[in-house]
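Box 3.1 A note on notation
Throughout this textbook, protein chains are presented in two layers. The first layer is the amino acid sequence; the second is a token string describing backbone geometry. Keep the layers aligned when reading.
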Amino acid sequence: MRIGIFSDVHANVEALSSVVEALDRDAPDVVACLGDVVGYGASPNECADIVRETAAFTILGNHDAAVAGRMDYSYYYDAARKALDLHASLLSEDNLGWLRGLPYSQALDGTGVNFCHGSPARLEEFDYIFAPEQARDCIPMYDSLSHLTLIGHSHLCKVFELSPTDVIEHAGPPRKLTLRPDRKYIISVGSVGQPRDYDNRASFVSYDTSTREFSFRRVEYDIESAAQKIFQARLERNFGHRLFIGV
């Protein structure tokens, strides 16, 4: 089975449209979204509509949970709270209902693949994994981990290879790799709508469960249009400026 995976759209319809076009060309068997469809950007309804049409399933992200009333986000910094408040007011009741029903994780039967937004160790807390120290928190649950756990949340592309006693972070990460059957992996797939690895192209990934081949993919999109929509929506201007440098 060939799976296409993306995460952290953050209401950037220009980036999402480019990723969906690339996925259409690839024609995977299944497409999955790992959450944070909303937050930061200017097109929450448009992105929710596209994700619902494109992805076989979507995982709940922390921004989705906040907008849907499923978590307290009063501790978020002011600009992020204002964006979430705006999105809650803009989203259709249908799209809000969809966000309210999203799962914290989902396994794909018979593939050895599990999907969640943050760390699988504490799903409802949306903990980050962007360093080996954080991935090591999952070692106590090594036996119950899927062969491959795909996550978003950090907006970074990261590969962590786990044994029962340690974690190795792959440098780079490599554009392509073949997963070892005797190890387990936690892979962060990057962000569609707000990359933060100094590469401003939209990120998505693909995985072939038969060959265990994994690929990171990037596509260009109309950053100028996405940024201008943010400025016109009176959202925090840095949400638009950072798109140009991917940070």
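The chain has one domain: 2-245. Helices lie at 13-26, 44-54, 62-67, 78-90, 93-100, 132-135, 223-232, 237-245.
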